[in-house]
Structure formats: structure tokens, C-alpha cells
Design a protein that fits this description.
2 copies of one chain form a homodimer. Chain A has about 140 residues and is mainly beta. The first copy, chain A, is built from 1 helix and 12 strands. Chain A has a single domain (about 5-10, about 20-140), classed as Jelly Rolls (Sandwich), CATH 2.60.120.10. Chain A is globular, with a radius of gyration of 15 Å.
Chain lengths: ~140, ~140
């Protein structure tokens, strides 16, 4: 999907467990200015329901599993994250919804910038309007 | 303990779970260049057993619980991490050992620099030697 990608990180496995390292600019295509994580989500709860104008993010599920629904004006995809060595890169202008958080699930996000409410698009119709031109011009390449 | 501190992060709680955000320079006293996480550790396994010459790190337990043993030439402390809104800051020249990882536990670390093997001190006697002067000069303030 345009502006989205699954990234595979190096997973250093030993008898003492797994260590996965993410270096900015090397393992993710941006500078990490902020990280955040979501825990304690009830299984029937859904989160997200927004897009970003400029922010780049990578989402990683560190325990349990979480489903992500990605939407653009021309496409919809669903991805299950359940492997700490796999990151879902989401660039600008992608609508995301997170659901089916299993008990004890942990969603870690590395973000390219500090928090700014101005960068959010929280209304879906407004999102479709803002993203329309970008995706119509890219649809022939998808 | 010198060069160590517990940091309390803002925990945004809603019906949809907890979100904790860590912005570089704001919520941690350094620029985040790398993050890494440790998962799938057996309960009887121990990790760490090193100090860093210059690296600054914050350790956060995102699920389950993990114990950290901190050592300097003059002191030893043990801390249990089990709250995603609490980070353990560890600065240079602190020896650390991690143990008692519960099933499903997740240890997230934000680090001030890229990986460099040269920054590690992995021999405890060498560590005592390198850290001795720093801690003897600080001991009167502790």
C-alpha cells in the first residue's frame, strides 16, 4: 500500500530471549523524536481513527497481537502484528484503526516528530477530501 | 543512586487503555537515537552484566515485571519495574544486571546513541577499576 511497508528488524536470539534494536535512519527511514506505547486495551476496544499530515511512524507489537486497519481513499488493508521483529511503517495521509488487542498486548510506536495536534486529521470525511488528490495521482502505480 | 533515577511519565488513561508518550529531551534527558526491546526471556535467565562508558538509557517494563540490579564500586540497589509509566534512567558507569523476567514481560530501552561495542565494559573487575575514581569523588554527596 502506498506510504506503508512492513519492515523486518534484526532479531538477536539467544538462550536468554530476543533482543531487537531499532536505530534511527538505519532501521527506520526517519529520525526518532518520540516513542509511545499503548497497553491495557480491552479486547473489544478500538483505537486510532485518524491520519497524520506529515508524521512518519513505525508500529510494533511487542507482546500478544493487534490488528491494524489501513485505509486510503482507494484501498483498505488489514494487518495482524504479532512479531516484535516486524514493524509496520505508516507514512503521511494514511487512515489507521487498531483493534483486536489481545490480553497483555503491547503496541510500541516510534515517531518522527514531537506530538502536535495540528498534524492530526480526526474526521474521516475531511481525511478523504485531503488525501484524494495524493492517492488518485498514485493509483496507477499501485 | 548517582547517575540513576526513576522517571514518571504522563500516562493518558481512557476506557481504551493506557498511552504513554516519551519525547526526546522533554521526558528523557537526552536525544533518542536508538530503541531496543527484550522479549521472550526465561524466568531463570539473567541479562545485562555490563556498564557503558558514555551511553544514557531509560529502561521501561511494558508488560509483566523485571528486576534490575544496579551496582557501583560503593553501592548496590535492586529495583522492580512493573509499570509502563515508570522509567529507570541509567547514566554512564553503572553496572546493571536484569533478572526475574516474568512470562510475557517486555523490557523497552531508549538509548542516547547508536550501538557501539567500544562503549561497553563487560568485565566486572575492569568496571570497578574504571569507575573507582568517579564514585569515590561522589560518595560524600550520596
Amino acid at each position: 500500500m502506498y506510504n506503508c511497508a512492513l519492515l523486518k528488524f534484526k532479531d538477536i536470539v539467544s538462550n536468554d530471549g530476543h533482543l531487537t534494536s531499532i536505530e534511527e535512519r538505519i532501521d527506520v527511514p526517519f529520525i526518532i523524536k518520540r516513542i509511545y506505547y499503548i497497553t491495557g486495551v480491552a479486547q473489544d476496544a478500538e483505537r486510532g481513527f485518524h491520519a497524520h499530515k506529515t508524521l512518519h511512524q513505525v508500529l510494533i507489537c511487542l507482546n500478544g497481537s493487534i490488528k491494524i486497519r489501513l485505509k486510503t481513499p482507494i484501498k483498505e488493508e488489514q494487518i495482524k502484528l504479532n512479531d516484535p521483529s516486524v514493524g509496520l511503517y505508516i507514512g503521511p495521509l494514511i487512515w489507521r484503526e487498531m483493534f483486536d488487542f489481545t490480553k497483555g498486548s503491547v503496541l510500541l510506536v516510534a515517531a518522527s516528530d514531537h506530538y502536535s495536534e495540528d498534524d492530526y486529521i480526526r474526521d474521516y470525511n475531511l481525511y478523504l477530501d485531503e488525501a484524494k488528490d495524493t492517492f488518485l495521482s498514485h493509483s496507477i502505480h499501485e
